[in-house]
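Late entry, adenosine-5'-diphosphate complex.
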Amino acid sequence: IKRIGVLTSGGDAPGMNAAIRAVARSAMKRGIEVCAIYNGYSGILSEEIKVLNHNDVSSILKQGGTVLGSARFPEFKQPEVRQAAVEILKKHGIEALVVIGGDGSYMGAKLLTELGVNCIGLPGTIDNDIAGTDFTIGFDTALQTIVEAVDKIRDTSSSHRRANVVEVMGRNAGDLAIWAGISSGAEAVFIPEQDLSLPEVLEQLKKAYDSGKRHAIVILAEGCIKNGLVESPEALAKLIEVHSGFETRATILGHIQRGGSPTAFDRVLASRLGAHAVSLIAAGIGGRCVGVQQNRVVDFDIVEALETMKHVPALDLYNLCYEIV
Ligand code: ADP
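Prediction complete; structure with ligand written out below:
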């Protein structure tokens, strides 16, 4: 194999650059040329394609976001658009592709593989919502950002004797909320995968208030709003205020969670997964997605990952949130 491409697709995540660098460097080590494809799958069609040299990726390891740009390109669901993409990749001599993104991006990678371009998917998302991997690239950095923010919110909440509902990202997954809940010592954590025990939580918060506690942090996963378990962070804050006695505010952390320099953990994870993707491609393998399980790099059939494997958050950790409150 002489030349491969790399692109980032879907929502961006810190550590994507570390993955791009690992793919580029380990391919170059094997004498394989690497083309950057800009702005996700749309960059194939618009031929935003450039051959990378060793120095092009020399300072991106610590940068947040993705230097390749990411984009949503729904047209890629159309077979004729994918066929046109295959022709363009052929024209540029690109024989295989590493796709860094979420499960939507994996679907595109699987379909391209079926058209003869071997693709390998790498899990790049802060949400940790991809089947077959314990951690996704970007999760640890987002978690760190959340914990730093919640620590600050707790300082001011405590000064004013307030409770604070903090909405965190995660799409339909509760992982960020669970890990943030434990790391920040939250009084309650709401995730979409579990029924809300709202009356108990309200009762606990009232007890805490009555006992003289000066602050309370409630972590709310955005998935709870998406699936209708909670109307809004403000509505939950109002309920808490009425039932517990705490003056309560709501904070939506928003896109701050997607930015920032990746943590060492995310850099190492991205480097391991990126190098593994290249080793699969060099062996002529495609249609696989790469992940880490119990600290070992693993790979799976993308179809299997998308159709039969389901991401579940660590519910033992969710229970731990309430055990140590
Ligand atoms: P993520 O990869 O983070 O899950 P999306 O679901 O938005 O994000 O998918 C990213 C991109 O992957 C889409 O904009 C589209 O270009 C491509 N994609 C998503 N679903 C499909 C599909 N069913 N078929 C082909 N391409 C797809």
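The longest strand covers residues 162-168. Will revisit in the morning.
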